[in-house]
Fold each of these.
Amino acid sequence: MTERRRVVVTGIGPVTPVGIGRPAFWEALVAGRSGIGQVTRFDASDLPVRIAGEVEDLDPTAFMDRKDARRTDRFVHLAAAAARLAWDDAGTPRAEPSRVAVVLSTGIGGLSTMIAQQRTLMEKGADRVSPFMVPALMPNAAAGQVAMDLGFTGPNTCITTACAAGAHAVGEGYRYVRDGLADVCLAGGSEAVITPLAMAGFAQMGALSRNPDPQRASRPFDAGRDGFVLSEAGCLLVLEEAGRAAARGATVYAEVAGYGASADAFHITQPEPQGAGAVAAMEAALADAGIAPEEVDHINAHGTSTALNDAAETRAIRKALGDHAGRVAVSSTKSMTGHTLGAAGAVEAAAAALAVNTGTVPPTINHETPDPECDLDYVPNEARRAEVRVALSNSFGFGGQNAVVALRRA
Amino acid sequence: MERQEVEERVRKVLAEQLAREPEEVTLEARFEEDLDADSLDLVEAVLALEEELGVKIPEEEMDGVKTVGQAVELVLAKQGQAA
């Protein structure tokens, strides 16, 4: 058994619909500001859903080589920007390149590249398809690009577990550092699939909100919720071995105390109604961290705003935390960011780390009408000052994969 | 199309495809050494040249093409064939 090293979060790089960079991101979440709007990137008037969370004003060439920006998909642009922002936020730590790992997830990968090239194939023929199509659309492209951009030669991988991918990345990245495979790990996720095809596909599943009011459509745990809002984001965290971070005087946002993962083994998209898989993941994260349920003050919930998730997650939190569940501040920041799929777990682990760090719990906005099936404290509509000793970040993916990260005050 | 116009259009397309400043893309510029173009860049650049200039350039004929000037000659020769 290898020695368990302590792992802390020393850098946070969010590129999200509510803001780019840690200060803007956190200010928006605490203010309860929605990042959802009408789709602007294409004409959505024929689609059943016309709202989404787009990242505005991102110039990829500010973060990566101009040629690389040309030949990569938007999900790589978001990841490259997030990586630079996270690394800068950590104070550009000096590190032996082979001891820096990258675990960078995505749920889907370069979908818009695939769609554009399929159109080229049909309209112009096989000899017009771009030689950059394959390296642009492969899900691991972002992890590879970030390694090239920053020169990190340590373990490098990509986990694709849909809406849990970002949380699996943070959890596995924590284990890399904890177990000594690396001293530092850039961990997180990226997703950019706001396309007519993805919106049609998710809408056909009944997963997307049909609420036409952009800023009110994502309403986790509210009785009037009717689905999630599709968003895009990149978010990376710098995870660092604690002694190393202390030695260089780094700002520490939180300690990654534990990680739990499980599978529902129930249905490819629906959560197991009692939340059994979610319970198992939460319990595993607490056990890994050696934390009692009573020490948990805050949960950044998966909270998608779908009828099924929010009810099942509520039951799961009650089961995992027992009587203490009612005393926990449960926030869904998806009420503001929308659902960024493979980036969500990283965006939310970042928010949970900042809640621990600042003693402020972000709200669940649009929480107006209580649902009897959702009977926890969801921090409705206004941020709250609170002592946050331990925060959990829950993420549950289509496919039945669950990942929970536990963050503790450092 | 006149030689000068072909030159201008080839240089413009290559500057865009290879993300270089237009003045860097001289006739003497070498793809690999001066313009940092790898094999995938060249395939993409040829697609763009074919599109922009309405010519067909078989992949094997790009093998000996190392400079922008040689690419211009190749396009001019292909245009002659098409005319």
Amino acid sequence: MMEIMEGSHAVARAVTLCRPQVIAAYPITPQTHIVEALAEIVANCELDADYITVESEFSALSACLGASAAGSRVYSATTSQGLALMFEVCYNVAGMRFPVVMSIVNRAMGAPLSIWNDHQDSISLRDSGWMQFYAEDNQEATDLHYVAYKVAENHRVLLPSLVCFDGYIISHTYEPVDMLTQEQADSYLPPFKPYHRLDADDPISFGLFASPDYYQEFRYENDQAMRRAHEIIATCGREFGEMFGRDYSGLVEPYRLEDADTAIVAMGSLCGTVKDAIDELRDAGKKVGLLKIRTFRPFPAEEIVKFLSGVSRVAVLDKNISLGSKGAACLEVKDALYGSQIPVLGYVLALGGRDVRKKDIAAIVDNAEKGIGDIFYGLREELLK
Amino acid sequence: MALNLGCTAKPGKSRENKTGSWRVFKPEFIHDKCTQCGMCIIVCPEGCISLNEEEYPVPDYDYCKGCGLCAEECPADAIEMKKEEK
Amino acid sequence: MTDEPCNLFDVGHRACGGCAAALAAKLILEAAGSNTIVVSSTGCMEVFSTPYPETAWRVPWIHSLFENNSAVASGIVASLKRQGKTEKVIALGGDGATVDIGMLCISGAFERGTDFTYICYDNEAYMNTGIQRSGSTPYDASTTTSPAGKCSFGNSRPKKDLPMILAAHGAPYVATASVAYPADFKKKVEKAINTPGPCYIQVHAPCCTGWGFEGEKTIAIGKLAIETGLWVNYEMENGEIKKVKKVKRKPVEVYLTEQKRFRHLFKPTKKEEEIAKIQQIADRNAERYGIDIVLKK
């Protein structure tokens, strides 16, 4: 059913339809609208859940860990500083293989303090063993939550998942969203069947320590689970498409890439702007296309090779940077294309909420054609004397 | 021996670790002196003392670490710590 | 010896011989029974009981991180409620995990009125990492990060009074206990888990390795702590002290001389002033809690 919804509210509704039993979240801009909406939903008995108003994000994810271990589907949401505070627990959740799903309303990391959007927060967790999905618009932000739960809870995966969408750009903007009904959600996402849980009838000890004789193999198994997730995401995404008409089987999504000279690679809401820019550039005779990365973990290396083998150059847009090195997507795309002779040029842009317009995309394509890359795009030179 | 997903374990595995091998001193239970108060069973940090058919305490020497708490706390002085001959 | 194990805290764990924490774990599960979920923080009790693939726990048990057992417990309690399950939730942590790094989570869990019991085994330092000073280390105790030396008498601060802090959070039942009085401890555990809301027990757990005495003396040392007034066993209900263990008090010296961690107060010379300060702490405890037995004329 189509509704005009603020991104946060659409996500809150989708989460409600997923029937989490325990929600533990701590308020932080720009996530607050989600947790407020959920609090109201619970207070009005529209969702049968325990809503724990925890004392910090660290405790939020810890409470989710506990509830998941006890056998409940759980939910949390955070961003930036909050996610950073959860860092220790994130590794714990992934290592213990609890299928927690958490929304990340992408926001820049301080210092300097910034409440505006970029991808530094979730990207900084890419080593942690959490799957990562990036939504292009309110619809994707909504739908990816159902898919994330289904994939995470699959016993061949059992990895937690971040569903990332851009702060303010998605969270606080109104767009038409096709919401599922409770019936539809239930038919796609059955009740949580834990692999194991805390239960006096079948006692298990969780969270043992692993000596050097065992640790490496546990990490290997987690890595294998992340690789298996690739196929499970495709299956669950395809199923969603078959049931509701929006296909999420691709970890990437090409746009006008078939005969492209220059391929742009990007994640998140930026893709919307890039698509519009591509249409204009195409009208002006430039053969440009986009490869949207929707799943960053597991990283779709095969798809990168498959879709980009035919292009003359790749311009990777990163709303994040590993200081002193490059943006995360640029490095991974380069790695995937190693061996081909295709130049991969990285552009760090839109940090801390700086706006990106169609003409910026055109300028970047221009730079790429001239071989100018691996730069911070759009610096205010007058501030840098 | 496949790994348990997420680093878990089921009850019972600690029994494979026979901590009795740690012992230097071994408690000897003198049942003639024992008043069957049960104190040794209560204070043993291993929980390895149990009652035999006559309801006298008997330690499980597979696990007894020889810490001496039972001997120290026995109100009847019915337990003696003796250096173990290995 | 039958093949049927009857202890919920099993043999084969790797605690030091005479370990009070191991004794505490055994007593806790004897009191709580099998319908219990235990949430442990990182520390001695967790490490000596669960090296993969071994576990000494015969109840459902979870260890997450050093400082978050109260938060994890909050999540478990919520989940159990949703599922209509009846297990009691006990969070276990050492003094370091509880009064220092875990303050955020324990305060939050208690403020929210979480229906669980937190039991802190207080061995008065970060023992698992090698005897470092915690907020619960007593005045003048020598630890590796508060060592006695040419210009130091050891730890320069008194113990943090977490029982009072949690009573101020509105905890319906707060108690202190000692492994030296096991029956009393078990009674308190039973009371705590059957009192709705967040309950707290701090159990004194003399550490032979960390304090410097023979493992067989664990209970004797625990008794001396109480008899000198440096540890007080009491119960609080809704913030009011209801029951206190009274003693015929002994001077603090008889407790201090038994432990290597206080040896610097006696050797090479006796530090009368410092011992007097410790005596003052005991005297203040005596006054505050009313522990002295007063014989009626």
Amino acid sequence: MKREVVSDAGPLISLEKMEGGYSFIRKLISKIIVPPSVLEEVFSGSFSTAEDYLQAFNIQDLIETQVPPVIPEAINSNPDLHQPEKEAIALALSIQKPLLIEEDIGRGVGDSLGLIISGIAGLVLQAQAQKIINKKEATLKLRELFEGGRLNRKLYESLLQNI
Amino acid sequence: MKFTIEVPEIEKRPKGVLSPGQAKELTEAIFAKLYDEGLFSEKQACDLAGLTRREFGEVLSRHDSGSLRYSPKNLNIELQQKSQ
């Protein structure tokens, strides 16, 4: 059964780096919920509006924005978190959904608050384990994430050993 | 922590003085390396370099690195997805 998740900006950028990344993620996830600030961070610099971004990737039905609640102090007081990242963590916490996040500090905060967290690389492995994609496709997607600056070399090579 | 690389605005640079392009490339390489080694958080690196997260990711991709760094915990988080 496909899941609904909350996402920070990084995983969405990761999906852009993979050929057909958003089409791929639809096989695992039915809805990606983001705070407006995350969507703004993702489209800024490349598109004029959020709507342009969603149309360009044909994901108007996949991405849903939700205004986050008041950010809990345990999240808000952390100076090493980006503001959209704080909002994504707070949103995931408030609606109790898994959180896609690829930034270390935010992962630590999310984990400490009991959130289920993952990056896109993990979903590539999950898709292979569920035989949604084969080993060759999984290897290619991980390479795209590495070449796109989304995984560092050591993590990329470690993940390849586990395909 | 702050890094400053000053490049003189002169027509002919003496040997050993970096061009603005070279200085930018070197600065990016330093930030990428320090981030990769875990000495900066992503926010610290972005703030110091004056880059957005997307821009910093592009810098990392040019320097054989990436936003999601290796750590036993990060590896474990990704591997756990196989059994979800």
